[in-house]
Amino acid sequence: MLFSKRTNWDRKPNALNQLMDELKLQGAAIVDLTESNPTRCAFAYPPEILQSLPDAKNLQYAPDSMGTLPAREAAGRFCRFDPRRTILTSSTSESYAYLFRLLLDPGDKVLVPRPGYPLFQFLLELNDAHYEHYPLVYDQGNWRIDFNRLERLIDGRTKAIIVVNPNNPTGSYVKAEELRRLSAVCRKHGLAIISDEVFFDYRLNDGPFVSLREHNDVLTFVLGGLSKSMGLPQMKLGWMLVNGPDGLVNEALARLEIIADTFLSVNTPAQNALAAWLAHAETMRTQILQRVKSNLECLTKSGVNVLSVEGGWYAVVHAGHIDEESFVLDTLRRHHILVHPGFFFDFELPGHLVLSLLPPQERFVKIISVLGGQDG
């Protein structure tokens, strides 16, 4: 076969995609409550964001494999990172790709959370790596890491554990005691931690919440970027911080510099504009956070069974004893409302739905009457 096995995916559209295509051909107006693109959710972006782009400096190319120092310093101030330990990338996905190339040989393994974002499967398969899910358990109104099951998954090919802080879609942060246990596990088995903190600043209550920005017990990578921090996915700029014991950090940075220099993917205009853009970050985050809180409050007050959520842009609803696929298809067919079934995110138990909290509330409330008829 001419093509690689790593790209031999099943590309047949699922039943939900097929129904969406049919409704679009009919001209149906779909209320999309899976929408995670903030640029399609009626936020007011400051016009100053575009004013940095016509700068004449953008016609000059002076590449730096780790990202230009002024841009790294801007990201460092914004995230409380050490710019000397920060590498810029074109996206969080690219940061993951760099780290998988840094840490994994073909056939090595990473542990990823379940429920979790399905992108990990594709990123790891494209890097000839394997993965296994460690479970997040919903216990007495809170999500927690099941460490007994996590440790049983570790073997000689395991190289890293990914935490998403807060997790997508459960919205659960890593707790201080969990971080202590996670560090002990990683020290025992010689593993790195990758902490995806793209949603970290979207806190929906007072916490306390733990970032891994200053975690030095083991080799640790902390990821972020403009896509979530400012609602600017189209500007294609992310960052990662490298923390841990000095010897491991220095070796990781030296290797990552070569990886990044091979691609030089971060565009010059975004780097030149970063400091000016980040001056407007609070404006955008405030808008997004207000929308998310308002939609979550609306959903919760409706009596729908919303599982505990601490941060991020999503809500998980337990809709009782339903067949998720049948419910989602029926809701789309009859009401023209699109929601995610829980199995898209690998929930272990059935009956879950995942909703984005980003859409304007007049769209969002349309789902409440539908969900309110379910056995919660």
Helix-strand blueprint:
Blueprint: H1 15-25, E1 31-32, H2 69-79, E2 86-89, H3 92-103, E3 109-114, H4 119-126, E4 130-139, E5 142-145, H5 147-153, E6 158-164, H6 176-189, E7 192-196, E8 220-225, H7 226-229, E9 238-243, H8 246-263, H9 268-278, H10 281-301, E10 314-318, H11 324-335, E11 337-338, E12 340-341, E13 352-356, H12 361-364, H13 366-372
Parallel strand pairs: 1-11, 3-4, 3-6, 6-7, 7-8
Antiparallel strand pairs: 2-9, 4-5, 8-9, 10-13, 12-13
What do these coordinates show?
There is one protein chain. A hairpin with a 2-residue loop joins strand 4 (130-139) and strand 5. It contains 13 helices and 13 strands. It has 376 residues and is α/β, with parallel strands linked by helices.
Number of helices: 13
Strand content range: 15-25%
**How many β-strand runs?**
13
Proportion of helical residues: 25-40%
The total number of structural domains is 2
Lateral arrangement of strands in the main beta sheet? 2-9-8-7-6-3-4-5
Gyration radius (Cα, Å) is: 21 Å
Q: What would a concise description of this structure say?
A:
With 376 residues, this protein is of the alpha/beta class. 37% of the residues lie in helices and 17% in strands. The chain has 13 helices and 13 strands.
Observed structural traits:
single chain; 17% strand; 8-stranded mixed beta sheet; alpha/beta; Aspartate Aminotransferase, domain 1; 3-stranded antiparallel beta sheet; globular; 376 residues; Aspartate Aminotransferase, domain 2
